[in-house]
Known about the structure:
- By secondary structure, this protein is an alpha+beta fold.
- The protein has a domain at 153-240.
- The protein contains eleven helices and seven strands.
- Strands 1, 2, 3, 4, 5, 6 and 7 form a seven-stranded antiparallel β-sheet that branches.
- Strand 4 and strand 5 (192-204) form a beta hairpin.
- Helix 1 (5-41) packs across helix 2 (50-66), helix 3 (69-86) runs antiparallel to helix 10 (305-331) and helix 6 (236-242) crosses helix 7.
- The longest helix is centred in the N-terminal third of the chain and has 42 residues, at 100-141.
Amino acid sequence: MLIGRTLGIYIGMRFLRAVAGMFFTVFGLVYVIDFVELMRRAGDLIGVTALDMALLAFLRTPAVAEQVLPFAMLFGAMVALLNLSRKLELVVARAAGISAWQFLLPGIIVAALLGIFSLAVYNPLSAYLKAEASEMETRVFASNPGATSGRDIWIRQRNPDGTAVIKAESVVEGSTAFSGLTVFVFDREGRFVERVEAAEGVLLSGYWELRNGRVVTIEDDPQRFATMQLASSLDPAQVLKSFTPPESVPFWELRDVAVQTERAGLDATPYYLRYESLLARPMLFVAMVLVAASVSLRFFRFGGVGPLVLGGVVAGFLLYVFTQLMEDLGASGLVGTTLAAWFPAVVGSSLGALALLYQEDG
């Protein structure tokens, strides 16, 4: 039996207000800490004002706050249920014949809707603001605009005459300029043709422009060059997107970026994992509500609420650690991305429901 519309809306709004209050509290705390740190970093810079740092901190905060959304859901649900219990509203609901599952239904619906909102609206917005923050931070703080990421990058491309495997030591953030390039060229039959080494290179439309390097073949001596062009079938825009961190890609673009990354011969697992993790977020939020309910339905007059709340915090922390562990296993390829993303949410929901069944139905 479903509870009445008025009571359902009342309980749902209590959940929504508690979760929103918890989230915006964390949001404000992260913003203040980040603003203070940015002011410290900008202390010796000329022409940088406190207003600039306030704007930069505001652009950076949503992406950081997104990571604590599951905890906001957990603590918000605990606060909502504890307040209902403290005011004896749950006692009245039980006396009217309403079971725990019935008055938890509005909270579960709110959690699912917030999960959908977070992946469909909040995530794209935070990704956009993070990209804007990265550009602003580069303009303000980067003493060397060509700062690169020190990690080997491998790219494979198909050409009319064969294939080429390209290794780069680093890439300039936000561009298709590489340094420390080594290109292994093969013919259509897969036979080695030559190796090209270049200090730096840029991927342009239809070709690579390599600078300051040499060409090594089996038959001839190494030949040095100042500039060399190498045909390429890669789209610079696709390659540029493939080097964007998964956290900076909006939900609606993750699948396309993953496909483009595969076409560039790179590992697209992080993008698929991020996509599946966002899809599993509504169920993870529901799991947090069930975990919160399993430790928050005890009446205040019975005592022992403190240890139960501590148990809920520990359970939420363990679920978060388990989620991160599964994501690391998925990113390393040890388990599939779908399993890594959905398993913690399914297990958390099942354990929370099991605990409630034990408490409520004996």
